[in-house]
Amino acid sequence: MRKLHVRATTTWLLPFLFVFGLTGLSSQAQTVLTISGEVTKPLTLQGSDLKAMAHSQVSAKDRDGKEHQYTGIPLVDLLKQAGATLGGELRGENLMKYVVVKAIDGYEVLFALAELDPEFATRTILLADQVDGTPLPFGTGPYRIVVPGEKKPARWIREVKAIEIRFAK
Fold first, then answer.
1. How does strand 43-46 pair with strand 56-61?
2. How far apart are CA 51 and CA 149, in angstroms?
3. What is the pLDDT of residues 125-139, one digit of tens each?
């Protein structure tokens, strides 16, 4: 009876371990990020695709109040690659577009599309994959949104899996 109980527990636990990367089989190269919605070219990017993109660095204070160096891809660069409405096209009804960033655990945050466009905003919002020169820790990464200058890091969403562009109509 005891052996059956262990087997049942193991059977239940294995999918959980695999999904959350505790088996050691999960890596950044196997992580998928999707960009969809009001874009001309929806994307499904593997970890290797993201790693190959140009990275930038920003300094920002995390919840711990300490200054950290985050490295990653400017969110606007990902949106450009997907064909989101940016730059000179971001006017009129297109200003009603917003971005929803989704995490593995179901947490979601929202940004006005103009907040991400360098023609409207001066800060760089990053899809970070490193902090202080090391990969983001388990439970935070492999990707996290970093928003420099925000008083509360509530939109610093962890374990990012998807980005959607939508109309607010």
1. unpaired
2. 25
3. 999 999 999 999 999
Signed CA dihedral, 35, 38, 41, 42: sign only:
positive
Q: Which two tokens stand for residue 140?
A: 């935070």
Domains, the chain, ordered by start:
1-27 (no CATH), 31-167 (3.90.420.10)
Contact 162, 39 (CB under 8 A): no
Q: What is the pLDDT of residue 30?
A: 55
In the chain, % helix, strand, coil (3-state, to 5) comes to: 30, 35, 40
Sign for the pseudo-dihedral over CA of 159, 161, 167, 169 = negative
pLDDT less than 50: residues of the chain: 1-29
Residue with tokens 């994307």: 43
Whole-Å CA distances, 65 to 68, 127, 129, 140, 142: 9, 20, 20, 17, 22
